[in-house]
Design brief:
Strand content: 15-25%
GO molecular function, one term: oxidoreductase activity, acting on the aldehyde or oxo group of donors, NAD or NADP as acceptor
Radius of gyration: 26 Å
Mean pLDDT: 94
Structural class: alpha/beta
Bound molecules: nicotinamide-adenine-dinucleotide
CATH class of the largest domain: Alpha Beta
Number of domains: 3
Strand order of the largest sheet: 12-13-14-11-10-15-16
Number of strands: 18
CATH superfamily of the largest domain: Aldehyde Dehydrogenase, Chain A, domain 1
Number of helices: 16
Organism: Streptomyces sp. WA46
Domain Aldehyde dehydrogenase: 19-466
CATH architecture of the largest domain: 3-Layer(aba) Sandwich
Protein name: Aldehyde dehydrogenase
Pfam families: Aldedh
């Protein structure tokens, strides 16, 4: 074993054959914890243990599951400071932002526990003229074992918002967290084990790199929910295609914000700077490009530059954004800033000097070419590209031409809804930023390269259940299209009758 212990790197990304993950405390750079890496055997064992309890979990019914989800919620809240400290250490975000992840998770658990029965309850559906004396209904049944693969940027909230839906719908879950934040997932699972001691295997976590994620998929999942980069999303979708395993993909984004001529510029500037810089810009729904109508462009740029210049960066208690836990991400941020500057943009705040080794300070790039990397590819850093547009129509056209389609924001006093409705994206905040991610009743997901499927809301609960349709005979089949020995001419008569009814409905006459 010892000869295989990998060198500690700042991000812990040390290759697929490593047997151990070494995480670091992002504030100090010192070793934080070691976790054994799960291989194929562990993945198969976890999926098999999950399968062995999935029936008992489903048999509890919606109320029985809701009761246990609420017990889990109490455990999460009781150890919330411990969870927040783990997020702060492994991800590096300020402690208060880590607490927000815990708070958000509590909200998601409550929504799923309170709403699963209503959304997924058995539903009677009407009969049809060709199926007389038949009752019909639909039940929403769980897939069985759901694998959840998560990212590092919101190591608790992102996978939790997904797995609560899967659990409430009656599935057992195996979570494979990011290799950068394994402790957070272990803490969540420990809270489950305390809350539901009779069925601990309903929620498990497996630590590891990409190979562990692959092994989890190979172990025979009934559904996979993947959150991460577009490139990995394509790889896992291709792997799932081999076994026709259904997959939910929550991938990257390049979220645009439109600042219309009638926007409240003070409000817009405050929300846009927060939406772009919070969490060090490490958000799939971070605002990355601002399309600003020319009549308000200069004033808006002045306001956001002033605010962005005040954002406190570091790991001290008063820091508002923390370090970049992935050195490779720092290189991407630098490349995007450099490309924009070389193509004529200017930095009103930050610039290349803002990109240090571990910390990246806010950067506002103005006059960015619409096809620059900073305007088209996910930067995932505390940067905002500003593009001047003639009107909101031009801004809408820019956003809709992008390959992603996750979140967005629109600032306008009078036309916010009208502009927002024309955007081909999954979510839009009007006169605010990122708000849709904080309400568990709001479906969350994207289109295009941002993936497909939805977490949160009623759609999120349905995502983890499949419709099982039932029909039951309630009396003799007086007339039925689905039987042998139909009377001669009965179907011809039925077809002629159907035509007459349709023509009567539309007021036409038969020839
Ligand atoms: P990533 O794609 O590098 O890794 C995501 C997860 O996949 C990790 O757990 C990783 O170990 C695992 N993985 C890697 N290779 C794999 C493979 N071949 N098979 C199975 N699993 C594999 O992404 P990341 O850097 O951790 O996360 C950042 C990305 O996630 C950004 O693009 C961000 O936009 C996106 N994200 C999206 C959402 C959303 O809801 N749409 C939310 C948060 C983050």
């Amino acid at each position: 074993m010892t000869d295989k212990i990998p060198t500690i790197t700042r991000d812990g990304v040390i290759g697929y054959d490593a047997t151990e993950i070494v995480t670091i405390d992002q504030a100090t750079g010192a070793e934080f914890a070691r976790y054994p890496v799960a291989g194929k055997d562990e993945a198969f064992a976890a999926v098999s243990a999950a399968r062995s309890v999935s029936g008992a979990w489903w048999d509890l019914g919606f109320e029985g599951r809701a009761e246990r989800l609420r017990a889990w919620r109490r455990q999460i809240a009781a150890s919330g400071e411990e969870g927040a400290a783990l997020i702060h250490a492994e991800n590096g975000k300020p402690l208060d932002d880590a607490r927000v992840e815990v708070l958000g998770t509590l909200e998601h658990v409550q929504y799923a526990a309170d709403n699963a029965a209503r959304v997924l309850e058995r539903r009677e559906v009407p009969g049809s003229p060709t199926t007389p004396n038949q009752r019909a209904w639909v039940e929403y049944q769980p897939y069985g074992v759901v694998g959840v693969i998560g990212p590092w940027n919101f190591p608790l909230l992102t996978p939790a918002a997904i797995l609560v839906d899967a659990l409430a719908a009656g599935n057992a879950v195996v979570l494979k967290p990011s290799q950068i934040t394994p402790g957070v997932a272990e803490w969540l699972v420990r809270a489950w084990q305390r809350a539901v001691p009779e069925l601990p295997a309903v929620l498990q976590s497996l630590n590891g790199y990409g190979a562990t994620g692959q092994a989890l998929i190979e172990a025979g999942l009934d559904k996979l929910a993947f959150t991460g980069s577009v490139a990995t999303g394509k790889t896992v979708a291709a792997q799932c295609a081999q076994t026709l395993t259904p997959v939910l993909l929550e991938l990257g984004g390049k979220d645009g914000v439109i600042v219309a001529e009638d926007a409240d510029l003070d409000e817009a500037a405050a929300h846009v700077v927060w939406g772009a810089m919070q969490n060090t810009g490490h958000g799939c729904i971070s605002l990355e490009v601002a399309y600003v109508v020319e009549s308000v462009h200069d004033e808006f740029v002045r306001k956001i530059s002033e605010l962005a210049g005040q954002v406190r960066v570091g790991s001290d208690e008063d820091a508002e954004i923390g370090p970049v836990p992935l050195p490779s991400q720092t290189s991407i941020i630098r490349e995007h800033i450099q490309d924009a500057l070389e193509r004529g943009a200017t930095a009103t705040v930050g610039g290349l000097d803002a990109v240090g080794e571990r910390y990246v300070a806010p950067t506002i790039l103005v006059g960015v070419a619409p096809d620059a990397l900073a305007a088209t590819e996910e930067t995932f850093g505390p940067t905002l590209a500003v593009i001047k547009v003639a009107d909101a129509d031009e801004a809408v056209a820019h956003i809709n031409a992008g390959r992603y389609g996750l979140g967005s924001a629109v600032f306008s006093r009078d036309r916010g809804e009208a502009i927002a409705r024309r955007l081909r994206v999954g979510m839009t905040s009007i006169n605010d930023a990122l708000v849709f991610s904080m309400n568990p009743a709001v479906p969350f997901g994207g289109r295009g390269d941002s993936g497909y499927g939805r977490k949160q809301g009623e759609e999120g609960l349905r995502e983890f259940a499949y419709a099982h349709s039932f029909t039951a005979k309630t009396g003799p089949a007086r007339f039925s299209a689905s039987t042998f020995g139909r009377p001669q001419g009965a179907m011809a008569g039925a077809l002629a009758g159907a035509l007459n009814r349709i023509l009567a409905e539309s007021g036409e006459k038969s020839d």
